[in-house]
UniProtKB/TrEMBL annotation:
GO cellular component: cell outer membrane
UniProt name for this protein: TonB-dependent receptor
Domain TonB-dependent receptor plug residues, every copy: 91-198
Pfam families, alphabetized: CarbopepD_reg_2, Plug
Subcellular location: Cell outer membrane
UniProtKB keywords: Cell outer membrane, Membrane, Receptor, Transmembrane, Transmembrane beta strand, Transport
Membrane association type: Multi-pass membrane protein
Family: Belongs to the TonB-dependent receptor family.
Species of origin: Bacteroides reticulotermitis JCM 10512
Gene3D superfamilies in UniProt: Carboxypeptidase-like, regulatory domain, TonB-dependent receptor, plug domain
NCBIfam families: OMP_RagA_SusC (TIGR04056), SusC_RagA_signa (TIGR04057)
Length: 485
């Protein structure tokens, strides 16, 4: 197949991209005379594209030659509207470093926090995620690095013109535009607050017309990037003996003790526990659901949305306690938003917005910050999960390290609730009758926030070891144990 590509005046166009639609790897470009040659099967479509021109599709049947005329696009990339500190402008007139973020691209990432999707998608943004715990798995991000020292280094965030501390509180489905201002010329209007860059977010508003209802449900499965593998009891004991022997020291574990570890004839004193498999799941599910409706008439318009996010934890729980409470590190959040626009006159618009979130985070009774340290500090033969008398060991018999199973499942639970309500009123008065482009904007906002927590801890019963636990320890030693009743 060969042909020529010209504009509406008949002038050849050089460098037009030509591909076979929906076929990977087949493509070519036009030469200096606008001509091309390409192999294509019958009843496939050729797609012609060029910057500044509308795309053209041609169905190839039995013909061997095709000539295409391309029309200049009416909407150029330079006519794209960009949101800046001074309002909306055409991209052609913007001289500062401004990036319009494709919100649809951010929605592709299965995360409950917007900040985790910025790195790699927004030019000039660096982000660091320091925790993977549900409810705490947010990313700290910087625009073109850190510009201030000894003070706040985070970007200045504005949502619908109001300052916000955290963009992760926003439901990503409610975002209409997401703009990042990077250099001094773009952020100068914000003064020192814009020293580290500015993020401008506008939320969705209703449009005149029939009621529009959108619903969306997503689910994803999360796994850890990497988890160390821990050796079993026999391997650990042999390695300890080997380390001792290389230092001309005596064995820690005698042959008969190694046999007890291998055969598990005395699991109270010579256990072999895979703590990682005991307390950690391979992964956990995340769920996101969103429902919004919008519409209105010529005088008033509305947008209402509600969403639900759930991130499940990766800790296993004690099935006997599940009916009473949950010790896993789960996180749930409910978001809601309502935006109403009312035309008071032909040149006056009143905008009322109400939004908020309710978050609940769950964790084991002693918290989950130290659980990983306890897991790494415990070896396979430190202690059994349960003693043969039904008690659960609290500490390692040789030191004060906490039993990971006890820490994650037997110490009760914590619930942290956070409720936020944000309301705003905006009045816009257009003065085009005086000077074209002159506008007055007045804003008022009121925010409220409250936090509360529930901490339920299980008490420990401390007793001296007895023969029932098969421990040969000094008479002054005391061990704390938690009954399973």
């Amino acid at each position: 197949m060969n042909g020529q590509v010209t504009d509406i005046k008949g002038e050849p166009i050089i460098g037009v991209n030509i591909i076979v639609k929906d076929v990977v790897g087949l493509g070519t470009i036009t030469d200096i005379n606008g001509k091309f040659t390409i192999k294509v099967e019958p009843y496939h479509r050729l797609l012609f594209s060029y910057v500044g021109y509308d795309n053209v599709e041609v169905l190839i049947k039995e013909q061997r030659t095709v000539d295409v005329k391309m029309k200049e696009s009416e909407a150029s990339v330079l006519d794209e509207v960009v949101v800046t500190g001074m309002g909306s402008q055409k991209k052609l007139t913007v001289t500062g470093a401004v990036t319009n973020v494709d919100v649809a691209e951010l929605k592709r990432y299965p995360t409950s926090n917007i900040s985790n999707a910025l790195a790699g998608n927004v030019p000039g943004i660096m982000a660091q995620q320091t925790s993977g715990q549900p409810g705490k798995s947010t990313s700290e991000f910087w625009i073109r690095g850190i510009s201030t020292f000894g003070a706040g280094t985070s970007a200045y965030i504005l949502v619908d013109g109001f300052e916000r501390d955290n963009l992760d509180e926003i439901n990503i489905e409610d975002i209409q535009t997401f703009t990042v201002l990077k250099d001094a010329s773009a952020t100068a209007i914000y003064g020192s607050k814009g020293a580290n860059g500015v993020v401008l977010i506008t939320t969705k508003h209703g449009k005149a017309g029939k009621v529009r209802i959108d619903a969306k449900v997503e689910t994803s499965y999360n796994t850890r990037t990497i988890t160390p593998e821990f050796v079993d009891g026999m391997t650990y004991a042999n390695l300890v003996n080997e380390a001792q022997m290389t230092r001309n020291l005596g064995r820690v574990y005698q042959p008969e003790e190694l046999d007890l570890i291998r055969t598990q004839m005395d699991p109270d004193f010579y256990p072999d526990v895979d703590w990682k498999d005991l307390i950690l799941k391979d992964g956990a599910w995340s769920y996101r659901a969103n429902l919004n409706l919008s519409g209105g008439g010529s005088t008033a318009r509305y947008y209402v949305s509600a969403s639900y996010v759930e991130d499940q934890g990766m800790y296993k729980t004690d099935e006997t306690l599940r009916k009473d409470y949950d010790t896993n590190a789960n996180y749930k959040r409910w978001n809601y938003r309502m935006n109403v626009d009312i035309d008071l006159t032909k040149s006056t618009v009143l905008k009322v917005g109400v939004s908020g979130s309710l978050g609940k985070r769950n964790s084991p009774g002693l918290g989950d910050n130290d659980l990983w340290g306890e897991l790494f500090g415990y070896n396979a033969i430190s202690s059994p999960v349960y003693y043969s008398n039904g008690y659960v060991p609290i500490s390692h018999r040789d030191d004060n390290k906490l039993n990971p199973w006890v820490s994650s499942t037997q110490t009760g639970y914590n619930e942290e609730w956070e409720n936020k309500l944000q309301s705003n009123v905006t009045l816009e008065q257009n003065f085009d009758m005086i000077t074209k482009g002159l506008k007055f904007v007045g804003r008022f906002g009121y925010d409220t926030e409250n936090k509360n927590s529930i901490n339920r801890r299980r008490r420990q019963i401390c007793t001296r070891p007895t023969d029932a636990t098969k421990r040969q320890v000094q008479s002054s030693s005391i061990r704390c144990e938690t009954p399973m009743t």
